[in-house]
Specification:
The protein is α/β, with parallel strands linked by helices. The protein has two domains: about 5-135 and about 300-310, Rossmann fold (3-Layer(aba) Sandwich), CATH 3.40.50; about 135-295, Dihydrodipicolinate Reductase, domain 2, CATH 3.30.360.10. Helices cover about 25% and strands about 25% of the residues. It has eight helices and 16 strands. The chain has helices at about 15-25, 80-85, 120-125, 135-150, 180-185, 195-210, 240-250, 300-310; strands at about 5-10, 30-35, 60, 70, 95, 110, 110-115, 115, 130-135, 160-165, 190, 215-220, 230-235, 260, 275-285, 285-295. The chain has a seven-stranded parallel beta sheet with strand order 3-2-1-4-5-9-8, covered by helices on one side. Strands 11-12-10-13-16-15-14 form a seven-stranded mixed beta sheet, with helices on one face. A two-stranded antiparallel sheet has the order 6-7. A hairpin with a 2-residue loop joins strand 6 (about 110) and strand 7 (about 110-115). Helix 1 (about 15-25) packs across helix 8 (about 300-310) and helix 4 packs across helix 7. The longest helix has 15 residues, at about 135-150. It is globular and about 60 Å long.
Length: about 325
């Protein structure tokens, strides 16, 4: 079988490194180049040291030989600039992991229109797409917690969300709040009620529940661990716990990476996987939904590979049947 030729732009960061690891083991993919403007000419394993013995590829300084799919792993605004400055083949599939094209009204450039790449929301549209805007990590975790309710027209009151993320969610650039001596043994709130992913989440909820006029009261937190997101959301609901469980299981019945769990969930269950675990509870008149994902996989690179699989007609799970770190 002819393999899909994959290129990566911005391969030295966290999401680029995770993509390399996933694609090296993908049975239907060949990595043809990994670009890095700061590490061109260096072997990949000098930056991603765990790749020693896994690949002899070097970082390139350009976007290299012809590819079938190009993953854009640069920071925000980098993808838009890259597409503007390069004459890319019309048939080239682009999967952008930044926020450049996630919002309606900002999802087009150079006659390319980007489809929002959350498979559990619009799998059929992704299968027909050539350009994908990969969702944000917080947005993925929270949307998976809320999509079944929106689909059933059941979000009719403010949604209160508390979510905590690992330090890799902030990328590799150093700052006061990513420095080990600050982050270790520490937890903090940031961008309360105004995180950039709120509009992205609301946009998806409206697709399923057109009359949605609710309010997302989102309080993000920085955690003192490396990877993973735990989001807990609660809202008023007349549904019983049994009805909620039935609703969620029906919605996710055909989606292989989302599991509704009877027991309470934790981050270690999903770290190093492309999976999302969801737990439901009821307290008086409120529904509580807890959702956990790995921010670098289901929240970024794993979801990007999942989107690639859908576009190229592969098994959605191909290359993504990964083992969690249980201990």
């Amino acid at each position: 079988m002819k393999k899909i030729r994959a290129g990566i732009i911005g391969g030295a960061g966290y999401t680029g490194g995770e993509l390399i690891r996933l694609l090296l083991l993908h049975p239907a993919v060949e990595i043809v180049f990994v670009q890095s403007s700061s590490h061109g000419g260096k072997p990949l394993h000098t930056i991603h040291t765990d790749l020693a013995g896994e690949t002899e590829l070097d970082f390139s300084t350009s976007h290299g030989p012809h590819a079938d799919v190009l993953f854009l792993c640069g920071g925000h605004d980098v993808a838009r600039k890259f597409i503007t400055e390069n004459n890319l083949p019309a048939g080239l599939v682009l999967i952008d992991l930044s926020q450049d094209f996630r919002r309606a009204g900002k999802n087009e450039i150079n006659e390319r229109s980007f489809v929002y790449g959350l498979p559990e929301l619009q799998r059929s549209e992704i299968k027909k797409a050539k350009n994908i805007a990969n969702p944000g990590c917080f947005a993925t975790c929270i949307q998976l917690a809320l999509l079944p309710l929106a689909d059933a027209q059941q979000i009719n009151s403010p949604v209160h969300i508390n979510a905590i993320t690992g330090s890799t969610g902030a990328g590799q650039a150093l700052s006061n709040t990513t420095h080990f001596s600050w982050r270790d043994s520490n937890v903090s709130v940031y961008k309360a009620f105004e995180h950039q992913h709120i509009k992205e989440i609301e946009q998806s909820l409206v697709l399923l529940q057109p009359g949605y006029k609710g309010e997302l009261l989102f309080v993000p937190q920085r955690g003192n661990f490396a990877r993973g997101i735990l989001a807990s959301a609660y809202l008023e609901s007349d549904l019983s716990l049994a009805q909620l469980i039935q609703l969620y299981r029906k919605y996710y019945d055909t989606h292989p990476f989302v599991t509704i769990c009877e027991n309470e969930v934790d981050i270690k269950q999903v770290v190093n996987t492309n999976r999302c675990f969801i737990h439901l509870a009821k307290h008086r008149g409120y529904a509580l939904i807890t959702s956990v994902i790995d921010n670098l996989l289901k929240g970024a690179s794993g979801q990007a590979v999942q989107n690639m699989n859908l576009i190229f007609g592969l098994d959605e799970k191909s290359g993504l049947q990964l083992k969690p770190s249980a201990f």
